[in-house]
Amino acid sequence: MSVLQLTDVSKRFGSGTSQVTALKDVNFTADNGELVLIVGPSGSGKSTFLTILGGLQQPTSGQVKIQNQAIHQLSKRALEKIRLNEIGFVLQAYNLVPYLTVTDQFKLVDQVKKSANLPTETFQALLNELGIEPLLKKYPDELSGGQAQRVAIARALYANPNIILADEPTAALDTARVEEVGRMFAHIAHQQKKAVIVVTHDTRLETYADKIYNITDGKLSQVK
Ligand SMILES: Nc1ncnc2c1ncn2[C@@H]1O[C@H](COP(=O)(O)OP(=O)(O)OP(=O)(O)O)[C@@H](O)[C@H]1O
Ligand SMILES: [Mg+2]
């Protein structure tokens, strides 16, 4: 069973002469235990692809299945529940809450999702690995881009989701950190049997990926 499946998915924005086709007849599946990379230039449809995959927006046509459930058949509430319990998003804009310290960003996860978050020891190891401990008392506007990016990754992983969807998670990181994050994502996919899907233009991540797709003008093609 695929954990994520897109069948003939297209997404258009706007109408008439200003219409943009962001995704064209995309077919895609992802399974547990693999790190999948989707590589493409700016404007190629990466964020659109990822947000549709995670049920954050609906396609214009085609079908999206998350853990074998067609999301258009789910109530809003049921979809929210799946997103909360099954999917960890690392979004392009990080989406940290501006008035909360880094520590409180994690506490917020505890409030929204009350169970099955990472046990303390594993969480400490994650903070350590991503170099977040010195940042715990800071607010998002006191963080550099790379620091905010690492906090956003840790926050997504803290909820211990089965599916991790990451949008340009390494854009602000130096090469050493990119390698760490690449290894971490591969480890999570392989050891914990999760599905990790990363959209990026960062080809430094390619060595860690089990599968690689290119996306160009909204068209997806597998290259590995
Ligand atoms: N909400 C929207 N309304 C109108 N057009 C949109 C919307 N979202 C995306 N688009 C258009 O769809 C196309 C794909 O956008 P998308 O954000 O998916 O690209 P991307 O590959 O993530 O780019 P980047 O690397 O710059 O983040 C672009 O032409 C964009 O302008
Ligand atoms: Mg994008």
Question: Gist?
Answer:
InterPro entries: AAA+_ATPase, ABC_transporter-like_ATP-bd, ABC_transporter-like_CS, ABC_transpr_LolD-like, MacB-like_ATP-bd, P-loop_NTPase. The chain has 224 residues and is of the alpha/beta class.
Layout of helices and strands:
Elements: E1 4-13, E2 20-30, E3 35-39, H1 46-53, E4 61-66, E5 69-70, H2 76-86, E6 87-90, H3 102-112, H4 120-129, H5 145-158, E7 163-167, H6 175-191, E8 195-200, E9 211-216, E10 219-222
Parallel strand pairs: 3-8, 3-9, 6-7, 7-8
Antiparallel strand pairs: 1-2, 1-4, 4-5, 9-10
Polypeptide structure, described:
By secondary structure, the chain is an alpha/beta fold. The protein has six helices and ten strands. It has a six-stranded mixed β-sheet with strand order 6-7-8-3-9-10, with helices on both faces. A four-stranded antiparallel β-sheet has the order 2-1-4-5, with helices on one face. The longest helix is centred in the last third of the chain and has 17 residues. It is globular, with a radius of gyration of 17 Å. Magnesium ion binds next to helix 1. This is Putative hemin import ATP-binding protein HrtA.
